[in-house]
Amino acid sequence: MKKLLLLTDLSDESVNTYRYGLQLAKALKAEIILLYCSSEKALTMTEQFGYLQKLRSYADRFAQAVKEKAGKLPSVECFVTAGEPVNAVAKMVETMQVDLLVAGDRFLDNLKSETPLPLQQLVPCPAILVPEGVTHKKIKEIVFATDFTDQDVEVAKGICKLAEALNAHVSFLHFYPKSERGRRAQILHKGEELTAQLTCKTSLHLIEEEDLLEGMNDFAEKYRADLFVLATKDTHLLQQYFQKTYRKTQAYHTRVPLLNLYQERNAPCSASCSFCHSGHEHKHQALSAVL
């Protein structure tokens, strides 16, 4: 992985996400692009220069604590833009050939609309969304909630490549409803076929649970999870993941950063995913292509 795009709104709430991105970039030996998007439709040269000075000051000031703890960090290249944040991110990803976006979970607010679009049309690269207030800790356990019977091997290999770069272990989760108890052996066999093609340290978990988020929450309560992974184009599912009024107070999964990426699927990625059910075509993008 070569380039990480970090988003900030220069607020105190964005500091943890910025510091998280710094430490992740160091672990991955990646370059850092720090982007601030002003709410104005356009900026004069003077305004742009002023914001750029603020951004550089922000970058230096809040990196100090990380430097004291982690040592030398990658250099930070700062950019300022104006207009719609989603458009600004898409343009930056394309122009700078960004491999991974790191943003706070509030970035999802920019994706709400009456006619939602698949996330990969809005953010054309894998994205790590960091819950508010969560600080970085070494990623030792990556947890991929997926369907063993409908999993793109190349995407799984990309996750493994990320895990190897971080010296992390990957847990693959498959949730199934009570009605599929009789298929457990078949599903497990598919999972074993998948992991046999991978080179990283892995384990399989087959869990009876109809609700994906409930299952992820229960897993995080019992086991270590430093980074959850979903391969979905469902923005509604992502927003539910970070919902502050989630049905379980202080749900465990809401405190774990989420990596979202994309893959072609034969089945809907969630019960609420209108994009899958409508047969909306989307661009395939395996994580292995950018690592």
Automatic annotation (TrEMBL):
Species whose genome carries this gene: Adhaeribacter terrigena
Domain UspA: 1-111
Name by which UniProt lists this protein: Universal stress protein
Stretches of the chain forming a coiled coil according to its record: none
InterPro entries registered for this protein in UniProt: UspA (IPR006016)
One Pfam family named in its UniProt record: Usp
